[in-house]
Amino acid sequence: MAVFSVDFSQYKAFIERLKQAGSGDFKNELALFLEGAGYELLRIVQDEIIRLKVMDTRLLLQSFYKGREENVWTLDEGNLTLEIGTNVKYATYVNDGHWLNPKGVDSRFVPGRWEGHRFIYDPDAKTGMVLKQKWVEGAHYWENALRSFEKIFPELLDTMVQRWIDKYFSDFL
């Protein structure tokens, strides 16, 4: 009678590596990767805001830093979810566009004064300007940043997964 023999010693070592990798190391590494990806997206958003010259007071630009008062940064490591953004009220107007004057109002007087090409709002001024109904096109900095990020993210993820595979399984490949 012929005897069939299989050496499972390498499989046993492979299964042990799977257990080690799944014991939290990979999840922790993935959470760190996700946080790094969030930082990268914030950097790209900032670059777009600067490139499109959409900021004046810098409040919008500064709100895209982790830890700023106006910043949204929520990392749920249990579900590996990262939510980033801004709570600056005018951010959506700058991104999406807006009416310069409320709809239904033909014009509106805004008190202030001109200093060169810049208008300075002054509620006590006797002079000012009249705003007429006009659509201000949005800069779409958010969509531009997301498109850029979506182009680089797969390569970032592939690199991270390859490092993880190399760390735990290179001797099996």
Characterise the protein shown here.
47% of the residues lie in helices and 21% in strands. With 173 residues, it is an alpha+beta fold. The protein has one domain (22-154). It has a three-stranded antiparallel β-sheet, with no helix packed on it. A two-stranded antiparallel ribbon has the order 1-2. The mean pLDDT is 84.
Please state the overall shape, judged from the principal axes of the Cα atoms: rod-shaped
Strand content: 15-25%
Structural class: alpha+beta
Largest sheet: 3 strands, antiparallel
Which stretches are low in confidence, meaning pLDDT under 50 for 5 or more residues running? none
How many alpha or pi helices? 4
Strand order of the largest sheet: 5-4-6
Number of domains: 1
* Rounded Rg: 27 Å
Distance between the termini: 35 Å
Oligomeric state of shown chains: single chain
The secondary-structure element order is HHEEHEEEEEH
Mean pLDDT: 84
Helix content: 40-55%
Counted beta strands: 7
Topology:
Layout lengths: L8 H43 L7 H4 L8 E6 L4 E6 L4 H6 E3 L7 E9 L2 E4 L6 E5 L2 E3 L3 H29 L4
Antiparallel strand pairs: 1-2, 3-7, 4-5, 4-6
Concise overview:
The chain is α+β, with helices and mostly antiparallel strands.
Key features of this structure:
173 residues; 3-stranded antiparallel sheet; rod-shaped; 4 helices
